[in-house]
Write a structure and sequence with these properties.
Blueprint lengths: L2 H10 L7 E2 L12 E2 L8 E2 L1 H16 L16 H11 L6 E4 L2 H12 L8 E5 L4 H13 L4 H4 E4 L2 H8 L3 E7 L11 H10 L3 E5 L11 H4 L3 E4 L13 E5 L46 H17 L1 H18 L18 E4 L3 H12 L1 E2 L1 E3 L3 E4 L8 H14 L1
Parallel strand pairs: 2-12, 5-6, 5-7, 7-8, 8-9
Antiparallel strand pairs: 1-3, 4-10, 9-10, 11-14, 13-14
Protein backbone atom coordinates (compact mmCIF):
# COMPACT_ATOMS: atom_id res chain seq x y z
CA UNK A 1 0.00 0.00 0.00
CA UNK A 2 1.27 3.44 -0.92
CA UNK A 3 1.80 6.60 1.08
CA UNK A 4 -0.91 8.24 -1.03
CA UNK A 5 -3.31 5.49 0.01
CA UNK A 6 -2.52 6.15 3.68
CA UNK A 7 -3.15 9.87 3.20
CA UNK A 8 -6.46 9.12 1.46
CA UNK A 9 -7.58 6.90 4.32
CA UNK A 10 -6.77 9.65 6.81
CA UNK A 11 -8.88 12.10 4.83
CA UNK A 12 -11.80 9.65 4.77
CA UNK A 13 -11.44 8.35 8.33
CA UNK A 14 -9.87 11.10 10.46
CA UNK A 15 -9.28 10.64 14.15
CA UNK A 16 -8.85 13.40 16.72
CA UNK A 17 -5.14 14.11 16.41
CA UNK A 18 -5.77 17.86 16.53
CA UNK A 19 -6.72 17.53 20.20
CA UNK A 20 -3.22 16.32 21.11
CA UNK A 21 0.38 17.50 21.19
CA UNK A 22 2.47 15.20 19.01
CA UNK A 23 6.23 15.12 19.75
CA UNK A 24 8.61 16.15 16.97
CA UNK A 25 10.42 13.42 15.07
CA UNK A 26 14.04 12.91 16.08
CA UNK A 27 14.87 11.16 12.84
CA UNK A 28 13.50 10.68 9.34
CA UNK A 29 12.02 13.21 6.95
CA UNK A 30 8.77 14.07 8.77
CA UNK A 31 8.25 16.89 11.26
CA UNK A 32 6.14 14.91 13.74
CA UNK A 33 6.90 11.47 15.03
CA UNK A 34 4.69 8.51 14.22
CA UNK A 35 3.64 7.83 17.80
CA UNK A 36 2.65 4.19 18.31
CA UNK A 37 3.45 3.88 22.02
CA UNK A 38 0.14 4.95 23.55
CA UNK A 39 -0.03 1.55 25.23
CA UNK A 40 2.88 2.75 27.36
CA UNK A 41 2.23 6.49 27.72
CA UNK A 42 -0.50 8.41 25.93
CA UNK A 43 -0.01 11.82 24.36
CA UNK A 44 -0.84 15.06 26.13
CA UNK A 45 -4.19 16.64 25.23
CA UNK A 46 -3.82 20.29 24.30
CA UNK A 47 -6.48 21.22 26.86
CA UNK A 48 -4.52 19.76 29.78
CA UNK A 49 -2.23 22.74 30.33
CA UNK A 50 -5.05 25.29 30.60
CA UNK A 51 -7.07 23.01 32.88
CA UNK A 52 -4.14 22.55 35.23
CA UNK A 53 -3.31 26.26 35.22
CA UNK A 54 -6.95 27.05 35.99
CA UNK A 55 -6.84 24.82 39.07
CA UNK A 56 -3.57 26.45 40.12
CA UNK A 57 -5.23 29.85 39.73
CA UNK A 58 -7.97 28.77 42.11
CA UNK A 59 -5.34 28.00 44.73
CA UNK A 60 -3.77 31.43 44.16
CA UNK A 61 -7.14 33.19 44.31
CA UNK A 62 -8.85 31.39 47.18
CA UNK A 63 -6.17 29.77 49.31
CA UNK A 64 -7.78 27.36 51.75
CA UNK A 65 -11.23 28.60 50.74
CA UNK A 66 -10.70 26.77 47.47
CA UNK A 67 -12.10 23.71 49.19
CA UNK A 68 -15.53 25.35 48.99
CA UNK A 69 -15.13 28.25 46.53
CA UNK A 70 -14.47 28.65 42.82
CA UNK A 71 -15.82 26.84 39.81
CA UNK A 72 -14.46 23.46 40.91
CA UNK A 73 -14.29 23.34 44.72
CA UNK A 74 -11.74 20.80 45.94
CA UNK A 75 -14.02 19.17 48.49
CA UNK A 76 -16.07 17.48 45.77
CA UNK A 77 -13.53 17.61 42.93
CA UNK A 78 -13.16 13.85 42.61
CA UNK A 79 -16.90 13.56 41.91
CA UNK A 80 -16.38 15.45 38.62
CA UNK A 81 -14.51 12.38 37.38
CA UNK A 82 -16.90 9.73 38.66
CA UNK A 83 -19.59 9.84 35.97
CA UNK A 84 -17.24 9.90 32.96
CA UNK A 85 -15.06 7.16 34.46
CA UNK A 86 -18.13 5.01 35.12
CA UNK A 87 -19.36 5.45 31.56
CA UNK A 88 -15.92 4.57 30.21
CA UNK A 89 -15.87 1.15 31.91
CA UNK A 90 -19.59 0.36 31.82
CA UNK A 91 -20.21 0.82 35.53
CA UNK A 92 -22.66 2.65 37.77
CA UNK A 93 -21.41 5.93 39.25
CA UNK A 94 -21.67 4.54 42.77
CA UNK A 95 -19.41 1.65 41.72
CA UNK A 96 -16.62 3.93 40.52
CA UNK A 97 -14.00 6.23 41.99
CA UNK A 98 -10.78 7.82 40.69
CA UNK A 99 -7.98 7.67 43.26
CA UNK A 100 -4.34 6.69 43.82
CA UNK A 101 -2.29 4.76 41.28
CA UNK A 102 -2.89 1.30 39.90
CA UNK A 103 -0.89 -0.99 42.18
CA UNK A 104 -1.84 0.96 45.30
CA UNK A 105 -5.48 0.46 44.33
CA UNK A 106 -4.96 -3.25 43.68
CA UNK A 107 -3.51 -3.65 47.16
CA UNK A 108 -6.42 -1.75 48.74
CA UNK A 109 -8.89 -3.90 46.85
CA UNK A 110 -7.12 -7.12 47.80
CA UNK A 111 -7.48 -6.09 51.45
CA UNK A 112 -11.20 -6.44 50.83
CA UNK A 113 -11.40 -9.27 48.34
CA UNK A 114 -8.46 -11.59 48.99
CA UNK A 115 -9.48 -13.34 52.20
CA UNK A 116 -7.81 -16.78 52.22
CA UNK A 117 -9.61 -19.39 54.36
CA UNK A 118 -9.01 -23.12 54.83
CA UNK A 119 -8.02 -24.73 51.53
CA UNK A 120 -9.21 -21.72 49.51
CA UNK A 121 -6.01 -19.68 49.57
CA UNK A 122 -4.65 -19.40 46.05
CA UNK A 123 -4.48 -16.46 43.65
CA UNK A 124 -4.82 -17.15 39.93
CA UNK A 125 -2.91 -14.83 37.59
CA UNK A 126 -1.99 -15.04 33.92
CA UNK A 127 1.28 -16.66 32.82
CA UNK A 128 2.55 -13.32 31.46
CA UNK A 129 1.26 -11.17 34.33
CA UNK A 130 2.78 -7.72 34.41
CA UNK A 131 5.64 -7.82 36.94
CA UNK A 132 4.01 -5.22 39.20
CA UNK A 133 0.88 -7.40 39.46
CA UNK A 134 3.02 -10.42 40.21
CA UNK A 135 4.87 -8.54 42.95
CA UNK A 136 1.58 -7.34 44.40
CA UNK A 137 -0.15 -10.72 44.62
CA UNK A 138 2.97 -12.44 45.93
CA UNK A 139 3.32 -9.85 48.66
CA UNK A 140 -0.36 -10.25 49.56
CA UNK A 141 0.16 -14.00 49.97
CA UNK A 142 3.17 -13.38 52.21
CA UNK A 143 1.16 -10.83 54.21
CA UNK A 144 -1.30 -13.60 55.04
CA UNK A 145 1.53 -15.91 56.13
CA UNK A 146 1.42 -18.00 52.95
CA UNK A 147 4.13 -19.13 50.55
CA UNK A 148 3.74 -17.18 47.29
CA UNK A 149 5.59 -19.88 45.34
CA UNK A 150 2.73 -22.29 46.02
CA UNK A 151 -0.20 -19.92 46.44
CA UNK A 152 0.20 -17.80 43.30
CA UNK A 153 -0.83 -19.85 40.25
CA UNK A 154 0.40 -18.59 36.89
CA UNK A 155 -1.50 -19.99 33.93
CA UNK A 156 -2.11 -19.44 30.23
CA UNK A 157 -5.48 -21.23 30.60
CA UNK A 158 -7.47 -19.63 33.43
CA UNK A 159 -10.70 -21.38 32.47
CA UNK A 160 -8.99 -24.76 32.50
CA UNK A 161 -7.30 -24.15 35.85
CA UNK A 162 -10.55 -22.97 37.39
CA UNK A 163 -12.27 -26.13 36.15
CA UNK A 164 -9.66 -28.38 37.77
CA UNK A 165 -8.49 -26.42 40.83
CA UNK A 166 -11.23 -23.85 41.42
CA UNK A 167 -11.96 -25.12 44.92
CA UNK A 168 -8.54 -23.90 46.07
CA UNK A 169 -8.70 -20.47 44.42
CA UNK A 170 -9.59 -17.51 46.63
CA UNK A 171 -8.96 -14.80 44.05
CA UNK A 172 -8.75 -14.56 40.27
CA UNK A 173 -6.81 -11.44 39.25
CA UNK A 174 -6.03 -11.11 35.55
CA UNK A 175 -5.20 -8.39 33.04
CA UNK A 176 -8.11 -7.54 30.77
CA UNK A 177 -5.69 -7.07 27.85
CA UNK A 178 -2.32 -8.80 28.01
CA UNK A 179 0.41 -6.18 28.16
CA UNK A 180 2.87 -8.31 26.19
CA UNK A 181 0.77 -9.76 23.37
CA UNK A 182 -2.16 -7.32 23.23
CA UNK A 183 -4.61 -10.22 23.51
CA UNK A 184 -7.98 -9.39 25.09
CA UNK A 185 -9.19 -11.93 27.63
CA UNK A 186 -12.82 -13.05 27.76
CA UNK A 187 -13.72 -11.03 30.85
CA UNK A 188 -17.37 -12.12 31.19
CA UNK A 189 -16.63 -15.84 30.67
CA UNK A 190 -13.70 -15.91 33.10
CA UNK A 191 -15.68 -13.89 35.64
CA UNK A 192 -18.55 -16.39 35.47
CA UNK A 193 -16.16 -19.32 35.81
CA UNK A 194 -14.38 -17.75 38.78
CA UNK A 195 -17.64 -17.13 40.60
CA UNK A 196 -18.90 -20.62 39.78
CA UNK A 197 -15.74 -21.97 41.41
CA UNK A 198 -16.44 -19.89 44.52
CA UNK A 199 -13.61 -17.38 44.03
CA UNK A 200 -13.56 -13.60 44.04
CA UNK A 201 -12.74 -12.12 40.64
CA UNK A 202 -10.85 -8.88 39.96
CA UNK A 203 -9.39 -7.33 36.83
CA UNK A 204 -6.37 -5.16 36.08
CA UNK A 205 -7.64 -3.01 33.21
CA UNK A 206 -4.47 -0.98 32.65
CA UNK A 207 -4.36 -2.01 28.97
CA UNK A 208 -8.12 -2.30 28.56
CA UNK A 209 -9.59 0.99 29.83
CA UNK A 210 -9.89 3.36 26.89
CA UNK A 211 -8.83 0.56 24.52
CA UNK A 212 -11.75 -1.89 24.38
CA UNK A 213 -15.41 -1.50 25.36
CA UNK A 214 -16.12 -2.63 28.93
CA UNK A 215 -19.36 -3.52 30.73
CA UNK A 216 -18.20 -4.08 34.27
CA UNK A 217 -21.57 -3.77 36.00
CA UNK A 218 -23.18 -6.21 33.57
CA UNK A 219 -20.26 -8.66 33.57
CA UNK A 220 -20.20 -8.65 37.36
CA UNK A 221 -16.58 -8.95 38.56
CA UNK A 222 -16.13 -8.13 42.22
CA UNK A 223 -13.64 -5.35 41.54
CA UNK A 224 -11.35 -3.82 38.93
CA UNK A 225 -8.63 -1.19 38.78
CA UNK A 226 -6.95 0.69 35.94
CA UNK A 227 -4.37 3.36 35.30
CA UNK A 228 -4.91 6.59 33.33
CA UNK A 229 -1.55 7.20 31.70
CA UNK A 230 -1.75 4.77 28.79
CA UNK A 231 -4.83 4.96 26.57
CA UNK A 232 -6.39 7.56 28.90
CA UNK A 233 -3.67 10.13 28.20
CA UNK A 234 -3.52 11.69 31.67
CA UNK A 235 0.25 11.90 32.09
CA UNK A 236 3.03 9.82 33.68
CA UNK A 237 2.02 8.34 37.02
CA UNK A 238 -1.55 9.61 36.61
CA UNK A 239 -4.28 8.70 39.04
CA UNK A 240 -6.08 5.43 38.40
CA UNK A 241 -9.65 4.23 38.70
CA UNK A 242 -11.45 1.69 40.86
CA UNK A 243 -14.61 -0.34 40.34
CA UNK A 244 -16.39 -2.20 43.13
CA UNK A 245 -19.54 -4.03 42.14
CA UNK A 246 -22.81 -2.72 43.53
CA UNK A 247 -23.52 -5.95 45.45
CA UNK A 248 -20.58 -5.21 47.78
CA UNK A 249 -21.33 -1.58 48.53
CA UNK A 250 -23.65 -2.22 51.47
CA UNK A 251 -21.88 -5.26 52.90
CA UNK A 252 -20.66 -4.51 56.45
CA UNK A 253 -18.57 -7.69 56.53
CA UNK A 254 -16.10 -6.41 53.93
CA UNK A 255 -12.83 -5.21 55.38
CA UNK A 256 -11.28 -1.97 54.15
CA UNK A 257 -8.47 0.32 55.13
CA UNK A 258 -9.98 3.69 56.00
CA UNK A 259 -8.89 7.29 56.20
CA UNK A 260 -10.07 10.90 55.99
CA UNK A 261 -11.96 10.48 52.72
CA UNK A 262 -13.53 7.08 53.56
CA UNK A 263 -16.39 8.65 55.50
CA UNK A 264 -19.61 10.33 54.37
CA UNK A 265 -18.88 13.87 53.11
CA UNK A 266 -21.73 15.28 55.18
CA UNK A 267 -20.18 14.06 58.42
CA UNK A 268 -16.52 14.53 57.55
CA UNK A 269 -16.09 17.82 59.37
CA UNK A 270 -17.95 16.68 62.47
CA UNK A 271 -14.54 15.18 63.30
CA UNK A 272 -16.02 11.95 64.67
CA UNK A 273 -13.42 9.32 65.60
CA UNK A 274 -15.34 6.53 63.80
CA UNK A 275 -15.87 6.60 60.04
CA UNK A 276 -19.32 6.40 58.48
CA UNK A 277 -18.51 4.95 55.05
CA UNK A 278 -20.79 5.86 52.14
CA UNK A 279 -22.50 3.04 50.27
CA UNK A 280 -20.38 3.58 47.20
CA UNK A 281 -16.87 2.98 45.91
CA UNK A 282 -15.94 6.27 47.60
CA UNK A 283 -15.66 4.24 50.81
CA UNK A 284 -12.39 2.78 49.45
CA UNK A 285 -10.80 6.23 49.34
CA UNK A 286 -8.34 7.04 52.09
CA UNK A 287 -6.77 10.45 51.58
CA UNK A 288 -8.19 13.67 50.20
CA UNK A 289 -7.67 13.76 46.42
CA UNK A 290 -4.62 15.44 44.83
CA UNK A 291 -6.38 18.18 42.86
CA UNK A 292 -3.58 18.99 40.42
CA UNK A 293 -3.23 15.29 39.57
CA UNK A 294 -6.95 15.14 38.86
CA UNK A 295 -6.96 17.97 36.31
CA UNK A 296 -5.40 15.90 33.49
CA UNK A 297 -7.67 12.93 34.22
CA UNK A 298 -10.73 15.18 34.07
CA UNK A 299 -9.65 16.55 30.68
CA UNK A 300 -9.04 13.08 29.28
CA UNK A 301 -12.34 11.67 30.51
CA UNK A 302 -14.17 14.60 28.93
CA UNK A 303 -12.62 13.67 25.58
CA UNK A 304 -13.74 10.05 25.89
CA UNK A 305 -17.18 11.16 27.04
CA UNK A 306 -17.55 13.45 24.03
CA UNK A 307 -16.35 11.00 21.37
CA UNK A 308 -17.58 7.76 22.91
CA UNK A 309 -15.94 4.34 23.18
CA UNK A 310 -18.11 2.78 20.48
CA UNK A 311 -16.84 5.23 17.86
CA UNK A 312 -13.27 4.90 19.07
CA UNK A 313 -13.42 1.11 19.07
CA UNK A 314 -14.78 1.06 15.52
CA UNK A 315 -11.91 3.25 14.31
CA UNK A 316 -9.45 1.17 16.33
CA UNK A 317 -10.54 -2.00 14.53
CA UNK A 318 -10.09 -0.32 11.13
CA UNK A 319 -6.73 1.24 11.99
CA UNK A 320 -5.27 -1.90 13.58
CA UNK A 321 -6.41 -4.06 10.67
CA UNK A 322 -4.71 -1.64 8.26
CA UNK A 323 -1.44 -1.87 10.21
CA UNK A 324 -1.74 -5.64 10.37
CA UNK A 325 -2.10 -5.77 6.58
CA UNK A 326 1.05 -3.67 6.17
CA UNK A 327 2.94 -6.04 8.50
CA UNK A 328 1.84 -9.15 6.62
CA UNK A 329 4.65 -11.69 6.77
CA UNK A 330 5.98 -10.45 10.12
CA UNK A 331 5.70 -12.74 13.12
CA UNK A 332 2.74 -11.44 15.12
CA UNK A 333 2.07 -12.80 18.61
CA UNK A 334 -1.21 -10.87 18.86
CA UNK A 335 -4.44 -12.67 17.92
CA UNK A 336 -5.63 -12.00 14.38
CA UNK A 337 -9.31 -11.77 15.30
CA UNK A 338 -10.32 -8.15 16.11
CA UNK A 339 -12.60 -9.25 18.96
CA UNK A 340 -9.65 -10.94 20.68
CA UNK A 341 -7.35 -7.91 20.81
CA UNK A 342 -7.19 -4.20 21.43
CA UNK A 343 -5.23 -1.83 19.22
CA UNK A 344 -1.80 -3.19 20.12
CA UNK A 345 0.08 -5.46 17.71
CA UNK A 346 3.13 -7.27 19.11
CA UNK A 347 5.83 -8.57 16.79
CA UNK A 348 8.54 -11.12 17.58
CA UNK A 349 11.87 -9.68 16.43
CA UNK A 350 15.56 -10.00 17.16
CA UNK A 351 16.92 -7.55 19.75
CA UNK A 352 13.72 -5.58 20.23
CA UNK A 353 15.34 -2.80 22.29
CA UNK A 354 17.92 -1.98 19.62
CA UNK A 355 15.29 -2.07 16.89
CA UNK A 356 13.03 0.29 18.83
CA UNK A 357 15.89 2.76 19.24
CA UNK A 358 16.69 2.66 15.52
CA UNK A 359 13.06 3.22 14.59
CA UNK A 360 13.02 6.39 16.69
CA UNK A 361 16.48 7.68 15.82
CA UNK A 362 16.45 7.03 12.08
CA UNK A 363 12.76 7.07 11.14
CA UNK A 364 10.89 9.14 13.73
CA UNK A 365 8.72 6.14 14.65
CA UNK A 366 8.06 5.73 18.38
CA UNK A 367 7.36 2.10 19.24
CA UNK A 368 7.82 0.15 22.43
CA UNK A 369 9.87 -2.95 23.24
CA UNK A 370 9.82 -5.68 25.84
CA UNK A 371 12.89 -7.83 26.27
CA UNK A 372 14.11 -9.88 24.71
CA UNK A 373 12.18 -10.08 21.44
CA UNK A 374 8.82 -8.24 21.48
CA UNK A 375 8.20 -4.98 19.64
CA UNK A 376 4.83 -3.40 20.42
CA UNK A 377 2.99 -1.05 18.04
CA UNK A 378 -0.23 0.55 19.25
CA UNK A 379 -2.19 2.74 16.81
CA UNK A 380 -4.35 4.54 19.39
CA UNK A 381 -7.57 5.55 17.61
CA UNK A 382 -7.77 8.99 19.22
CA UNK A 383 -4.62 10.38 17.65
CA UNK A 384 -2.80 7.77 15.54
CA UNK A 385 -3.19 7.97 11.77
CA UNK A 386 -3.04 5.62 8.81
CA UNK A 387 0.05 7.52 7.76
CA UNK A 388 1.67 6.72 11.13
CA UNK A 389 0.99 3.04 10.46
CA UNK A 390 2.42 3.30 6.94
CA UNK A 391 5.56 5.00 8.27
CA UNK A 392 6.03 2.27 10.88
CA UNK A 393 5.70 -0.48 8.29
CA UNK A 394 8.13 1.28 5.94
CA UNK A 395 10.63 1.75 8.75
CA UNK A 396 10.41 -1.92 9.72
CA UNK A 397 10.89 -2.90 6.09
CA UNK A 398 14.03 -0.79 5.95
CA UNK A 399 15.42 -2.18 9.20
CA UNK A 400 14.46 -5.84 8.80
Amino acid sequence: MSEDDARRRDAEDPGHRALFLVPPAQGGKYRECAYLAGNSLGLQPKATRDALLSDLDNWATFGVEGHLEGGRPWLDYHSLLTGPAARLVGALPEETVVMNTLTVNLHLLMVSFYRPRGERTRILVEESAFPSDSYAVRSQARFHGLDPDTEVIRTADPLGRLATEGGKVALVLLGGVDYLTGAALDIPAITRAGHAAGAMVGWDLAHAAGNIPLKLHEWGPDFAAWCSYKYLNSGPGALGGVFVHQRHLDDPSIQRFEGWWSTEPGTRFLMDPVATPPKSADAWQISNPPIFAMSPVRVSLEIFDTIGMDALRARSVRLTAYLEGLLDGRTLVTPREPERRGCQLSLRVTDADALSRRLSRDHGVIADSRNPDILRLAPAPLYSTYHDCWRAAEALRAEL
